[in-house]
Structure prediction request, 580 residues.
Amino acid sequence: MDTPTVKKIAHLARLQIDDAQLDHYAQDIGNILELMNQFENVNTDNITPMAHPLDLTQRLRDDTVTETNHREAYLKLAPAKEAGLYLVPQVIETEK
Amino acid sequence: MHQLTLKELTLGLAEKRFSSKELTQHYIDRIKTHNPALNAVITLSEELALTQAENADTRIQQNNATALTGIPLLHKDIFCTQGVKTSCGSKMLDNFIAPYESTMTQQCQDAGMIMLGKTNMDEFAMGSSNENSFYGAVKNPWNTDCVPGGSSGGSASAVAARLAPIATGTDTGGSIRQPAALSGITGLKPTYGRVSRFGMTAFASSLDQAGPLTQTAEDAALMLNVMAGFDAKDSTCAREAVPDYTAELNQSIKGLTIGLPKQYFSKELDPAIADLITTAAKELEEQGATLKEIDLPHTNLAIPTYYIIAPAEASSNLSRFDGVRYGYRCEHPNNLDDLYFRSRGEGFGEEVKRRIMVGTYALSAGYYDAYYLKAQKVRRLIKNDFVEAFNEVDIILSPTSPNTAFKLGEKASDPIAMYLADIYTIAVNLAGLPGVSVPAGFIDGLPVGMQLIGNYFKESQLLNVAHQFQQASDWHKQVPVAFK
Prediction:
């Protein structure tokens, strides 16, 4: 694991990582991935990947509305809001 | 009163030897006196607790009580509790007042139980020492220089110090059983899907399971009666019927076969721990169980498998923390990207960021097959080991942890050393099986836990064996001197 790769992963994960910390993360993540070397000699031909411990199938529900409106309660938690909407920095550029 | 078990407290309330309000006030006072030394409780909901206690006393007077009406408890701060701060031990949620109630905490409320407050934890349940909390490390009541284990370290420390008769926790790779072992109490992880995950902040959704931390196996059975059950709000919750988990506690264990995995008793195991666990196994043999060595050939692959699957699921689950809708937002974001990057970079702690990055890497283009898909296949091999073992045995017995409580800071800078603390517990989550840790002795004044693993949905049998062990031992009755 090298620092450009850490930078790339941090970008994919939308995490700001200080440049001074990159080496440290590269070292730790490299060590963690080294654990996976143990997979190399394991034969998994014809083994179905296990996504879930109980191998459940997705349950269906009735096609009825069960959720009630909690707009006010949820908006109260927002770090910034305006006119009943979540407020974020401007995304679309204005004409100059 | 705090010396009594949950079971004894229910009798005291029923016989009106004390009221729920008196009991609740007693535990609030204990938390105020002793918590500063432990940092186990991070939110005390005193006013709410006393109101709930008054309501419980009314219910008891009207003969409208359930088995646990009037009993106070602490919840791990990962469960959403409406109107009460729910932080997950993270700066990200330091300002988060849950707008709804988790199913499990609602079940406790409906049963008439009293919420004393919320317990400290490793941030987003990632850790084995409770040192990864935004609110500081939790101390072990047996030795306050040592960790209580994690991630449900606050719950374990609080129950061990008798700041509450019981506490709830969650277990993704050992986060109930390992702190229970290191803190000298009983901790049960039920079968995956047994307890609803609705309102329990997700870490790794295919592994997470809630359960109780208690003094005894009998208390864990009483609590599981309240916690277990189907919930339409959790798409992975099991539809299995909920038995009375106390019904089989007193059965004889004569005729049961107990498996000892040879990989769990390898030469690397600390001989002092091996001695105590072997002695405990012999006690069960004396009661009529048959001991049998078993083979779990893929044991050594559990840690690498877990450290792909859990971070992969976490990286996806934790993408919801974006600084837009709730939780932490950075100061003066320049633009939307800056808002995302800095809110997440500043709001998450180091271990959480590390795991998000490992998971993101494992799921990224070009690496998915080699890491994630491979891990999912190996996960099935690990599960199959257990399925085969349970064709021959009823219960599997092992140490809970390879070590007793370690010193604060000892493993904090080495993630791999920390991950190895869960070497005996992790495979149980990968397979989705129920497991319980019970106190099995002490080494240099620090508790050692024995892990018992049961077959799917056989919590009754698991608790039966744990209870019978506790009828013949008194390790679970030991209380750290400073907290008697």
